[in-house]
Design goal:
Elements lengths: L3 H15 L4 E6 L12 H5 L4 E7 L2 E6 L3 E6 L5 E5 L21 E7 L4 E5 L6 E6 L23 H8 L6 H6 L9 H10 L20 H19 L42 E5 L2 E5 L6
Antiparallel strand pairs: 1-6, 2-3, 3-4, 4-8, 5-7, 6-7, 9-10
The chain binds a DNA duplex (16 and 16 nucleotides) through α5.
DNA sequence: CCGCGGGCCTGAGAGC
DNA sequence: TGCTCTCAGGCCCGCG
């Protein structure tokens, strides 16, 4: 499921009920997700105050009062939902479980705010892991990540530099989290479309020319900024699993220009092209061969 | 070192 | 209805 806009949507939904609140109890309702839970995972969270909730690429990081950090990843199908108390009730009163469809509810946090936070992940490609704050830079999942696409350091010069010597397609380069961290299949397709660049183009063609980033690199950075910001504003894209923490769907899928639009007309003004699909590195690429070069 | 293909899981949808 | 097949928003690993 989740690429950067979906994860950021989840972060914004969880922040008000997590930050400043205490995890009264945590439950891991099975032994593993993508990896086995650490021994005493739930116990180590019990009683911890969440002092902040951040995001790095597609990872969520909850800072804990103990100085530890809870690292969370949603995999392909992970989602969080917040179950709020119906009235102003005594904190400590739990509201979960609820509903029948809870087989894939794998982790539950009972918060001192009165909210229950439920992590659901049918495919179990997600994971949670507690690490020390000092270990963040050495953490294998984080240490090779490239720049945040919406951060200050990600610009045309940086992208151009990252493309130097790349022997792969532009599509594959943008999916490579070492080049830029947070894009996935949808937003790579959408950004390439908006920049009118072919997913088949060699990544190295964006590389720095005589110390100056190419216009193509500038266009692409601009397209990435636009598409991510719009998607965050829309609460992400809901194809099947993604939900906002309120349970509402995101609605950026209605703004897709190419993703999942095979055979439909290109939406570029004056372009008579048709959206095509083909497989690149084992993933579907959607694009308009007429206006993406 | 780099780039690619397979594998990890479950569920939805298409086709028969 | 029910079976089988393909495909899905991510990432790790092993191979060449």
């Amino acid at each position: 499921m989740p690429e950067l806009p979906e994860v950021e949507t989840v972060r914004r939904g969880l922040q008000p009920v997590m930050e400043g609140a205490r995890i009264v109890t945590a439950e891991a309702r099975r032994g593993d997700l993508r990896f086995p839970f650490q021994p005493d995972f739930a116990k180590r969270l019990q009683g911890q105050t969440v002092t902040g909730l951040g995001r790095r690429a597609k990872y969520l990081l909850a800072d804990l009062g103990s100085g530890d950090v809870l690292l969370m990843h949603l995999g392909m199908s992970g989602s969080f939902r917040v179950i709020k108390p119906e009235h102003e009730e005594t904190p400590g009163e739990f509201h979960y479980p609820r509903g029948k469809d809870s087989v894939h509810d794998h982790v539950v946090f009972h918060m001192s705010s009165g909210a229950d936070i439920v992590f659901n992940d049918p495919r179990r490609f997600g994971f949670m892991k507690i690490i020390g704050r000092g270990e963040i830079e050495r953490e294998p999942h984080l240490k090779d990540l490239g720049p945040e696409p919406l951060g200050n350091e990600f610009d045309a010069a940086m992208l151009a530099r990252a493309c130097v010597g790349k022997k792969t397609s532009l599509k594959a380069a943008l999916l490579d989290q070492r080049v830029v961290a947070g894009l996935g299949n949808i937003y790579v397709c959408e950004a390439l479309f908006r920049a009118h660049l072919s997913p088949r183009r060699l990544a190295a063609t964006l590389a720095t020319k005589k110390g100056e980033p190419t216009d193509h690199a500038r266009r692409l950075v601009e397209a990435i900024h636009t598409v991510l910001n719009e998607a965050i504003r829309a609460g992400g894209s809901s194809l099947r699993d993604h939900r906002q923490t309120s349970g509402e769907l995101g609605y950026f899928q209605h703004s897709f220009q190419v993703y999942d639009r095979e055979g439909e007309p290109c939406r570029t003004d004056g372009c008579e092209g048709v959206v095509k699909r083909f497989v690149q590195n084992g993933r579907s690429t959607f694009w308009c061969p007429k206006c993406q070069r």
